[in-house]
Amino acid sequence: MSEPNTDTTTRSDIDEQSDEQFRSWTESSGTGTVNIQDLRKVYGDDGDELVAVDGMDLHIEAEEFVTVLGPSGCGKSTVMECIAGYLDPTEGEVLVNDEPVEGPDPSRGVVFQENRLFPWKTISENVRFGPQMRDDVDESRVASLFDQMGLEGFEDAYPNELSGGMQQRAELARLLANDPDIMLMDEPFSGLDAMTKELMQEKLLDVWEDDDRTVLFITHDVEEAILLADRVVVMTARPGQVKDVIDVDLERPRSTDMVTTDRFNELQRRASESIHDEAERAMEQAEGRA
Ligand code: ADP
């Protein structure tokens, strides 16, 4: 004899549950969102103040690839360091996953133009460093990062034994070993020769397309900004704020040969025009004329 059915779940309960489940599968969990609200950052103190950023607002969706273009000294790195948690805003707020940033966190990985590899550690020790600090080394992940970054065979090399491009790949592997939700990249490829830079751009696009990560990438290279991004944010001269946001409607996956297409050229022209006056203003500031 079968058990009597004591389940009181109704059809609408099931619908509600499955709706909820469906939403949790299809909607972003919000992991990796960045919200910059009316950010102001002032360096120095009374009488000797420099307003680097003022009235900056920007929302970045989870898994979005955003590039930031702006003239030198307009506050790009300052904004990034506020998101990284290295700097506190003077006014306004930086929220990550709807929570105010309170200091650095491995879920927000940072890459600079000059790599931050420890010169006295091997590449393998560098890549493992973050997870090891948390007692959380995933050997298969480390191996696959070496493979993905084309660094197999260089595990025991020291950073100064590698070329600039390989050092930046090791830096990317080191960053990815922490499995960050957000990658903050400050002109990471600007010190590389043109060919290596192109290869690194392709590598980064592969990494981003494979994983669910948000990327904020600062560059002064208009072509690079468009090639990589979902949206290009153009900043004003100092004090920096958002001047323009350009949606990049080029198809994905992207490849470096797209730079010759008409649409790419149109977007490039628009970004260059947008930044032109700001670059002029920044130059006047640097020369003390503004
Ligand atoms: P960008 O990244 O766009 O080149 P930064 O964010 O590095 O610009 O700098 C913005 C402005 O703030 C520049 O004028 C810079 O000289 C100044 N600045 C940056 N860091 C400091 C600091 N620690 N103390 C004083 N001024 C700073």
In percent terms, what proportion of residues is strand?
15-25%
The best one-word shape is globular
Measure the end-to-end span: 90 Å
Average pLDDT across residues? Answer: 89
Largest sheet: 6 strands, mixed
- Please write the CATH class name of the largest domain: Alpha Beta
| Global Rg | 22 Å
For this entry, give a set of tags:
ABC_transporter_ATP-bind, 2 domains, alpha/beta, Rossmann fold, 290 residues, four-stranded antiparallel beta sheet, ATP binding, single chain, 10 strands, six-stranded mixed beta sheet, ATP hydrolysis activity, ATP-binding, binds adenosine-5'-diphosphate, disordered N terminus, nucleotide-binding
Description:
With 290 residues, the protein is an alpha/beta fold. It has 2 domains: 30-107 and 182-289, 3-Layer(aba) Sandwich (Rossmann fold), CATH 3.40.50; 114-179, no CATH class. It is built from 8 helices and 10 strands. It has helices spanning 11-26, 76-84, 123-133, 139-148, 164-177, 194-210, 222-228, 262-286, and strands at residues 34-43, 50-60, 65-69, 91-96, 99-100, 108-111, 182-186, 214-219, 231-235, 242-247. The strands form 2 sheets. It has a 6-stranded mixed sheet with strand order 6-7-8-3-9-10, with helices on both faces. β4 and β5 form a beta hairpin. α3 runs parallel beside α5 (164-177), α4 packs antiparallel against α5 and α7 crosses α8 (262-286). The longest helix has 25 residues, at 262-286. The protein is globular, with a radius of gyration of 22 Å. The relative contact order is 0.16. Residues 1-11 and 21-29 have low confidence and may be disordered. The site of adenosine-5'-diphosphate (ADP) has 13 residues, from β2 and α2. Residues 43-44, 50, 52, 70, 72-78, 238 line the site of adenosine-5'-diphosphate.
